[in-house]
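The passage that follows is intended for readers who have already worked through the single-chain material. We present the inputs for a multi-component assembly, then the predicted structure in tokenized form, and finally a short commentary. You are encouraged to pause after the input and sketch how you expect the pieces to fit together before reading on.
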Amino acid sequence: MNKVLLGLLVGAGLGALDGLTAWFTPEARSQIAGIVMGSTFKGLVAGVLIGLFARKVRSVPATLVFGTALGLLFAYFIAHMQGKYYFEIMLPGAIVGLLTGYATQRYGRNSQTAAA
Amino acid sequence: MRLGDAALDRLRDAVRAPDLAGTRYRLVGPLGAGGMGAVFEAEDELLGRRVALKVVDVPLDGEAPAEALLEEALVLARLEHPGLVPVHDAGRLPDGRAFYAMKLVKGERLDAHLGHVALLKERLRLFLRVCEPVAFAHANGILHRDLKPSNVMVGPFGEVLVLDWGLARPLAGAGGGGGAGTPGFMAPEEARGEPVDTRADVYGLGALLDAMLRVAPAPPRPKALASIAARAMAPDRDKRYSDVPALAADVARFLDGERVEAHVEGPFERAGRVVKRHRVAVGLVAAYLLTRGLFILFRH
Amino acid sequence: MTRFPDTRGSLVAAMRSPDEATRARALSTLAEAYWKPIYTYVRLKAGREHEEAADLTQEFFARLVEKDWLARFDASKARLRTYLRVLADGLVANESKAKGRVKRGGGLQILSLDFDAVRREAEEHRAAGELSPEDFFEKEWVRSVFSMAVERFRETCVADGKELRFALFSAYDLEGDAAVERPRYEGLARRFGTTAVDVTNQLAAARRDFRRIVLELLRELTVSDAEFRLEARALLGIEPST
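Having made your guess, compare it with the prediction:
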């Protein structure tokens, strides 16, 4: 599977799961559908970006750093919209970004580009 | 007349040394003894380089050893591969002994080398590199028939060389060797003197793999590898790997943490292997779950 | 593998020949190769004194003929060299049991052997005691074989009018002990009135001839192809490196 598609799927999947964990927070339970959709979309966008980066750079450490940073950034936006739970949102977000970055490099293939 | 000790030593040295008079080689010293001859280091004065000379040590009445040595040279000369020693020259010395000159490789025998290779993965990578020239020879229609640790040399730059092709035979109609190989490394059908095919070398490589895993300091030997060696060494050759690449591929699968063909694994063994193979991803997921779990726990 | 008949050229076969002269020649060659090893072995292993060991050595060869010991030799089980050493062990053991029995007289000394040089050697060795009696037996055997080969080589050279070759061989390979530096080819050339190139060629040819003679002799002193190869490797081959 190519890295971009893999990033998309992993990012969306992990985003959906991450959103579902909001169910454990009783006050957020009523808005669970919106949270899951938002989280999935956030993960999907982050995943595609990480996949693109992984395809371009092909360096595992760089992709890990990029994934973590992107995860942190997106989680920061979410936390900022909420105005609270910065730590609870950003730490798992960073791990998900790291995991997505790792997955794209470890399991993704470079799409066949036209060779000279 | 009675010879003194010094004269005796000189005479022994004189008759042991190959007679290089009138050749392009100048003797440097003995290197070791091989299957049917002794190996000497010599200086090739024409090209100004050191070579190894393999010389039939005892000429018998029959031409058999000389023929066998020259046959070995022919086999090696036909096979050009980084895992095989290049032959430079062959012929007869002035004293009538057959010889051939090959590249001088100053390395360690595999069994000695393994003494300072403690990691299982390193040993397996070495094993795969032994498989390469053997598979290459098979592709060119040649069987080795005497694969064992003492016939593999590891050079100073990590190059792996399969030596001693003295028992090598063309694949077509190989057989009737009458068990000329080494007990413990020789396929049963070969010991019985029956016709052999590439699977006889698969057996030899299986025995070699097994031996490589036992040289001290022996790393722990996973069951899957024991199964690979056991399949390669199956007494019934139809139950072995069909060829050397198939054996090598199974070892490579083990190295990659994939399921090996030769081994039926239990559920826990399988789970253990999958987790080990994906340990970074599994670790990251676990870290994620842990942080999420802790946050949920401390929220309440 | 069976490129030559099992006992071709072998002394063991010649010892049992119907022809008296062949038998005598075979015994004399066998004795020449083995009497010193056996004498020193009896002295070192059984601790016998000179007179007794010399008698036992004579006795050994007498019995070898009388009792046809070689008929029982099985080349697939042992080397001739080992078989003869074990026979010597047996002889010494039996002799000890039958102490005091009538000593064999001079008439039974079927060989004329000069024990003086080897006596000194054995006594010196007994004092130093570096090698086991078995190893010393082997070493003496090698020495006997090479000594016989040198003698044969000398005879061949004389017969072929190649005295210079033997003289050079002797000067370069035989003379002087280990501490003495080998003579240089130029020095030998001056000494023998020839050229250094000739010395090089003569010495190379001498070694080639000598090697061939050693192998011929070994062929006689062994029984089977396999034993010949074993002994030839022990004598001429290089030991497998460890």
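Commentary: Residues 279-299 of chain B form the longest helix (21 residues). The interface with chain C takes residues 1-12, 14-17, 19, 21-22, 30-33, 38, 57-62, 64, 94-95 of chain B (CB under 8 Å). How closely did your sketch match?
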